[in-house]
Each structure stands twice: as C-alpha cells, then as structure tokens.
Amino acid sequence: MGSMIRRIQQDARMAQLVEYNGCFETAGQVAADPSCGIVEQTRQVLGSIDELLSEIGRTKSDLTRVQVWLADIQYFDELNVEYERWLEGFEKPVRACVESRLAGPDYLIEVQVFGQAR
C-alpha cells in the first residue's frame, strides 16, 4: 500500500510544504517584502513557517531540522536574536546556517524546516 503525500500551497513550480509518512518539509521560505533589513526579513520568513505549520496542525516542537541560508554571514547575530525568540518555549531542532548567494540580491535570508509528527 502506497503512502499518502499531501502537498500544501502547490503551484506550477512547487509546493510550499509536503507531508508524507508522518514527516513534513517546507520549501525554502524567503521574505514577502525583501526591501527591508535582516530583522524584518527574518520575522517574515519565520511567520511564513508558522502559517505553514498551522495549516497542517503542527507546532515548532515538531521540527527536527532547520536550514538557514544568509546572503552575508554578518547577519548571524541578528538572525539568532529573532530565531531564539521564535523558538522560545519549544523543543529545539538541529540547525545549519551558511552564507550563500540567494535567488535575488534583495533577499537576505532563506529558511527551510523539516519535522515529524509526535
């Protein structure tokens, strides 16, 4: 018997979240308004992740892994302030954070999360 795959917010290119075999993963999330700085972009990205988790009835405690790409590693400390505030009171996932050129010059951060149902 095949496993069910559920795709959330799917368009011609991709889904924003895929749920399968009790696991889930998001596409890389970027700011809806990339004209602002790293703090606001980080808040927008983490807010998008919250919305996706809510759509499948999961919380941040269900996260197993977070991958972060920064356009410039100089944003590391500012990212961490927002990230730690976002995860306050939740179980912590593993995380990787690297510097990378992103899809456009205005994007300062991209985040992808992975998780599993409890």
Automatic annotation (TrEMBL):
Pfam families to which the protein is assigned, alphabetical: Ribonuc_L-PSP
Coiled-coil portions: none
Lineage: superkingdom: Bacteria
Alphabetical list of InterPro entries matching this protein: RutC-like_sf, YjgF/YER057c/UK114, YoaB-like
SUPFAM superfamilies listed in its UniProt record: YjgF-like (SSF55298)
Protein name according to UniProt: Endoribonuclease L-PSP
Taxonomic source organism: Caballeronia calidae
Record lineage: Bacteria, Pseudomonadati, Pseudomonadota, Betaproteobacteria, Burkholderiales
